Please model this.
Amino acid sequence: MKKSIFGVVSALLSVYMLTACVSCNEEAETAVPAFANPIYSLVSGYGSTRVGEADPWVYKHSDGYYYYTASYGSSFDRIQLKRAKTIDLLDSGDSAEVTTIVTPKSGNFAKVASYLWAPEIHYIDGTWYLFFTGVCYDSTDAAYSTSVWAVKNYVAKCSSSDPMTGEWTLAGRVRAVKGSTFDASALEDSSDVNKMDLTLYRYAGDTAQAWIMNLDGTPFKVGDQWYYAWAEYVYDGGWADEGESGDGILTFGGREHIDGAGTGAWSAILMGKVVDGSDFTQVTDVRPVTAPEYAWEWGEEVYDENGEINSFDMAHSALVNVNEGPAILQRNGKIFLIYSASACDASYCLGMLSIDADGDLLDASKWTKSETPVFTSSVGNGIYGPGHCSFTTYKGYDVIVYHARTWPKLYSYYGRTNNFTTASDGLSDPYRTGRAKVFTWNKDGSPNFGEAE
Model:
């Protein structure tokens, strides 16, 4: 009898242990993924020293691969494409495939020079598209320049099913107009602001001046309409200013944007409608949707992970009025435009606009803007200046991909720790790296990015 009881007890214990193990396995399989950040970084000649990339873009394709591209190191002299079956493997030389798809001043890209910034890869209607920023190197184009700051938005395309081995060609430079009709013959006629190329000219008062910086272009589709959003400098009294010229305030969408950095210009995010059949190189109905108006958008205030203004020891680039790097999330009947603000140092952070999915996206007054940043430096985690993000999914979870630094100060070159020298320009610091983390959603339907890690 005792033996029988012991047998039953033993059997029950076996079932319990088996059930417990299954439960453990289920928990392990459904655990929130954590990534071995950085997800990709270059390796310098010093061996273990990791040298970064900025503006990371990750796209998950139907072939099961994650495709990754970013602004290359601190030289910005090529665009590489990488792919791997998991986000973590993007940083493994043994597992990730790597190829260079854009080399400036050569081959199909002879008309483009460095700086090559903020590349994005998309697969649209059976064609691969690459959206990126570069300097115009075509002497027949009015945008031709030898200045690295005269960057423009470009589009390249690849008709092959495999973007790693297929041929990439330059579709052209993105050109945009304020009016509803794209007339190629009138793009360089500065007499009509509705017809002139807004990506080429800055319009101040009655004069169009042929120097403008635009960058960070991204396409997205709402319903049947494709839109294109990008960052571009606008000016007091220019085409986007609905207020009084010369008052030191940029006014549009019922909001006033003061010149907090004292630069005389605002890096605003513009948006317009893509012309069908133009390979995303023609955009109409252009309007600004956001420009810096809060102190954290020009670096005067720096928030930490607790939502508080923090005075941690950091090196500051010069103050700049910057909204740039737009990225789009669509969820819960809303459209969220996540953008980068401030200088590319430890003050860099993410802001957010939101609008109903059926709202007028080109009316700035219809967008709701967060008064504080939604993703900031994490002093506790030792991660500084998170910005320029993209979004993907991993094992059913939503993932934000972004760049950040592990130092609050800036360095002018990479090397051993005793070789660091301070730099005032965040672009010269090679230590930005691509990072990833799972994010969640708030009860009001907005994204919750948590802490940078």
